[in-house]
Amino acid sequence: MGLMSDPYPSSITHDRYDVYINQDFIGQKYLLTAQESVHDIDEFLKNEGIKEFESYLDGDHYYIKAGENERRAAEVLKVYLQNR
């Protein structure tokens, strides 16, 4: 009797991005639905009053260049990523 691979794997994979603010690793963003985007992070930061930043995607790394709000951006983003 031979071993067969499962044609229906039990675990579902999700897209995952490593998130950085000014080159410091903050956490990981998982996209759990088709409607989610790594760019949702930008909207979240803006909703938190953090508007002075630039962001870009490089492969599975999402970089945010924050200005004077770097510390606050990192704090609120850590909470956001942990609660996702």
Strand line-up across the major sheet: 2-1-4-3
Which CATH class of the domain at 25-82? Alpha Beta
Largest sheet: 4 strands, mixed
Helix content percent band = 25-40%
SSE class = alpha+beta
Overall average pLDDT: 87
Low-confidence stretches: 8-12
Strand count: 4
Work out the helix count: 2
Instruction: Based on the coordinates given, report the CATH architecture of the domain at 25-82.
Output: 2-Layer Sandwich
What is the gyration radius calculated from CA atoms? 16 Å
List the helices and strands in order.
EEHEEH
CATH topology (fold) name of the domain at 25-82: Alpha-Beta Plaits
Roughly how many Å apart are the termini? 43 Å
Task: Give the DSSP E fraction (strand runs of 2 or more residues).
Answer: 25-35%
Shape: globular
